[in-house]
Amino acid sequence: MNSPFLNLFPGLTEEKAIELLETPVEQLKEKYHRYLAAAHLVNFPSERSIAALIKVLQDPHPARENRQAQRKAIESLGRLKVADAIEVMRPFLADSDRYMVENTVWAIGEISTSDKDILEEIAQLLNKEGQIYRVIIQTLAKLNYQPALDRIAPFTESEDSAIACAAITAKSKLSGDNTQVHHIIHFLNDKNIHARRGAIQDLMDLEYNQAIPNIAVAPVSQSLRLRGMRFLADKAQEKDNFDFSEVESSFDLAIWDHPQDLKMAYEYSEKPTLERVIEDLYNTNFGYCYLASKAMLEFYPQEGDVLKQSFDENAQEDYGAHYHIIKLFGWLKYEPAYELFLDTLLNLGDKFVKSRIAAAISLGYLADKQAIPHLKVGLESEVWKLKYACLLSLEYLGDSSGKTLCYNDSDWLIQKKIS
Questions:
Q1: Where among 91, 106, 128 does a domain terminate?
Q2: Model confidence pLDDT, tens digit, residues 62-105
Q3: Residue 282's domain spans which residues?
Q4: Nearest 5°: CA angle at 387, between 381 and 388?
Q5: CB 9 within 8 A of CB 32
Q6: Which residues are within 8 A (CB) of 257 and not within 5 positions of it... i.e. 6 or more apart?
Q7: By its UniProt entry, which InterPro entries does this protein fall under (predicted)?
Q8: Which of 88, 104, 234, 303 could serve as a FRET partner for 267 with CA atoms 20 to 30 Å apart?
Q9: Domains contained in the chain, number
């Protein structure tokens, strides 16, 4: 619940959000405010907020804006893990809107239930056409509903690789048989972006820490890879059967995040133009961003000025492109970006954590020792992956003081890194 992305409307109070939800939809000047209010109340786990969200689900008004608010209210109740909401949201399992069904199934999974009747209702959705089967399968496995195993099994052959991956994972989890995990690892490099992302979550669900090296080189966002790797490392550490030295190089690789180290999902059929390469850096599918980064380094290493112009004009509000271009400036050894690296590392907020990591790495790769004191400041961050990046860059610059500065760090992984 501490994600900076949940509180998207900092000026909206709990009181005002509840008022918006309680106002009849036809009386709202901006009807979409009902949806925003339902989303915002996830930040207020009070009885009043929960009651307001449940009341939304009981409103039969057929207006599209009300239906959208109901879908978001279900999600918020799921995030808040409100057990009393399950019976209220249960009728939505039979809704004609598959996205409403998806949110309901997901929310029940988040809240958790052992009610066999509810679990069977969810399992029966596998026989219903047009559903979002991946979420259904994940939830049944998460809630350990064994009677669904035979119905899940056919989905392992689904043409939709994201669904097939979830089904293989569920089958492994419900049967206790991990012999098919290699198929899940294979999906880490699938051309379907949802399969690649899903495979990381599926490996997390299985707590399969042996996949950490495979996740490190998957062509998905660095933040998603590191989230999966850190989760698996933490789980293994809790069980006291984990040797960090065996995966340290994988964490280093994922933090450095050089495109040359990744297993690409795509390729260019011919040498791309500079315009195409820069355009692909803004793709929401990071598989193409990494492909473009690799092409930039291979074909256009002298075009830093052109890249800087694009950055100034287009990347300021694009978190993904901002990250990739900051990182590219470092790999290109583009010295005019030095001040940009410093400003990014020291002054940008939580929403730009990825770019701050990229800036730390780029400062190291630029090989300017003036960056050392600034990288030491980065070690004061509470974000483990930013500290890790600063440690790597300090080491790259020949400075070992980071180990001393982090000697009493409370994070076990940082402790392992400096030992």
A1: 91
A2: 899 999 999 999 999 999 999 999 999 999 999 999 999 999 99
A3: 274-418
A4: 165
A5: no
A6: 222, 327, 358, 361
A7: ARM-like, ARM-type_fold, PBS_lyase_HEAT
A8: 303
A9: 2
